[in-house]
Amino acid sequence: MDTLFITGNSFLELFGRNPYAGMWFLFVHGGWIVILILILWGAKEVWVDHLIGKALMSKEWVLLAIDVPRLTEQTPRAVENIFAFFAGIHAPPANKLETYVTGHKQGTISCEIISIEGRVQFLIHAERKHRDSVEAAIYSQYPDAEIVEVEDYSLTIPSRYPDKEWDLFGTEMIPVRDDVFPIRTYPEFEDKVSGEFKDPMSVLLESMSRLGPGEQFWYQIVLTPIAQVEFSKKAGNWVKKFTGQVVESKPTFVEAMVTWPFRQLALILEVLGLYAVEKPTTDKEGLQRRMMSMTPGEKKIVEAVEHKASKVTFLCKIRFIYAAKHEVMKKSRIVHPFIGAIKQYNTNDMQALKPSGKVGMSSTIILRKNTRNTERKNTLLSAYRGRSDWAGHMPFHMNSEELASLWHFPITGQVKSPQLQKTESKRAEPPINLPYA
Fold first, then answer.
1. What is the pLDDT of residue 428?
2. Section 286-297 average pLDDT
3. Are 365 and 374 in contact (CB under 8 A)?
4. Model-level pTM?
5. What is the domain range of residue 259?
6. How far apart are CA 246 and CA 249, in angstroms?
7. What are the Cα distances from residue 61, in Å, to 65, 107, 124, 346?
8. Confidence (pLDDT) at 22
9. Is 246 inside any structural domain?
């Protein structure tokens, strides 16, 4: 103990006189181990990322165009059921062999709406091995839908910019608050008196149908299935913090390594009597008072967070791209209506989606404006074509109800778009006595 006190006092004196000498003291007396561990951890992460990229390149993909009959009267709830079914492609966690030798990458599904010169089409991009599952999910809710494999439309414009003939604009849509908060969803667009549903997507589809020759607009939501306990735990911890409960959190490996020297220093100072570590306590009476004193608005937020966590959840990326020839490009024709359509789902007390200022093109850039915007165009287009679930901003959580609000087949009678692709009528079964050739 005397040695500990002498070492502690000597270290404090040394750190007070010369912080750099104090840091060197920590490095020589074991700190180098932490640095070595961090270097090895970084090398491991680089290798794992290499294997993930290799596994991703080996996947085979399919792009499916979905047309629904004009007489279909389904609500977004049917599409919510489809999204819940998509969660079934979640693969079990990778084993050691997959993690460090062969590589492993969770499959994704990209739900898209595009307008090619005013012709609107709904599409789903998925692994070919999941095609039967995707079609089964759609047919279960829309038995008369027509599903056809098509070529990738994103390959119809130039790959690199600047280009003499084409230009593009786009970005990602990101949440403004923690993703435990939900956006406004389709049940809130139903009239409480008449029960009529006012489709918030109708204005977007109408705007997309107004594009002319030489114009294209793409809207993409990339879904990555996850273990549901992951988000449930995150939302539960937020509720506990908000209501004043104690939340026990286990630091990650990197956090433990980075904070190790500081925890050792705190231990030395505690032994010397110069610092006391506060222990969390549970105040049940205080918790009850907190719950009773919550305003109606606070209770509404807690209920909304718990409701979001109660449904199937995905990690998501939302992107849009407007591509057009130079002579006809006019962002106000579709970009502004798209942002306005998305803002219908925003709330002031919970969640809202906004365009990212760090991914898409921006007029606020000062230094190397044209060069940086060009780089962003190329990066965004590459991420869109690859249906990447990691490029750009970090993905965020959305549940099946939120996704069905943002992407669902149109409600007949509310969308007048003349070029919205739909089948003309329901399919009829062949007669049972049809003779064979």
1. 46
2. 74
3. no
4. 0.79
5. 2-41+252-276
6. 10
7. 14, 10, 11, 33
8. 62
9. no
